[in-house]
Design goal:
- The first copy, chain A, has one domain: Roll (Nuclear Transport Factor 2, Chain: A).
- The first copy, chain A, contains 3 helices and 5 strands, in the order H-H-E-H-E-E-E-E.
- In chain A, strand 3 and strand 4 form a beta hairpin.
- By secondary structure, chain A is of the alpha+beta class.
- Chain A is globular.
- The longest helix of chain A has 18 residues.
- At the A-B interface, strand 2, strand 3, strand 4 and strand 5 of A face strand 2, strand 3, strand 4 and strand 5 of B.
Chain lengths: 144, 144
């Protein structure tokens, strides 16, 4: 199995954890010094917050449905003990108290380091662009 | 000189090019297969658009001042022929026709590959988060 397959498996395991609402699994791959740039403020998230499954659990509990999740245009680069990946991801879920699911396409970059033979997430960057039409609203309506 | 110093130098050269308004220099480090996730839509930018200095020139021409640029919390990881970096960046400039500069802090991830002994940019991801208060406005008011 190539190293690229190892990374692909890790990403698929993380996608499965998101679909299953498994908060522990979602934080298990992070390195202690992880820096995460997420969809929500502040600019950067670090330990202990990022490593705490409670925050993920609270976020998952804000939906009345399971999270549907799709990854497109994934590209993986690996050399030595470093890897980086980027993709366009779709997330759909029904917010608590609503009838209809929202659907959001966003950009995702995941950077990994192999530590003691195990690939771990060192950095994660999820985002949407924003409209430059003077509204400065997040561009939540884009599709690949 | 360590490889991390090589990367730091490349990033500093790019910062200097931005401050100097040097559009050619800004696109010179990109690999032909670069995928850029930028502050503005669409979700992803690829060649030939990203490699065209004309687009950068038009963007730089939308300011009445030079671009002031600062990089904070830069972390660089290098192994073999891969590297990834992330930082919080501040950009300030006076939009054309305005009196006052705007200032924007955003997150930046730069992923590099060494090709024929030269470090090149394979992937770039710049973004702001957005407010989850129902306004869905880009969070342009954040500071590190």
């Amino acid at each position: 199995m190539s190293e690229s397959d190892d990374i692909r498996e890790l990403l698929e395991r993380r996608a499965a954890a998101l679909r299953a609402g498994d908060a522990e699994r979602l934080v298990a791959d992070y390195l202690p010094d992880v820096v995460a740039f997420t969809l929500a403020p502040p600019l950067a998230h670090t330990a202990p917050e990022v490593l705490d499954p409670e925050a993920k659990r609270a976020w998952l509990a804000s939906f009345d449905s399971a999270v549907d999740f799709e990854v497109r245009d994934l590209r993986i680069s690996v050399d030595g003990d470093l890897a980086f990946c980027h993709s366009l991801n779709r997330m759909s879920a029904v917010p608590r108290g609503r009838q209809e699911p929202f659907t959001l396409w966003y950009r995702s970059t995941v950077c990994l380091r192999r530590v003691d033979g195990v690939w771990r997430v060192a950095h994660e960057h999820d985002s949407t662009p924003f409209h430059m039409d003077g509204s400065f609203s997040a561009a939540l309506d884009l599709t690949p």
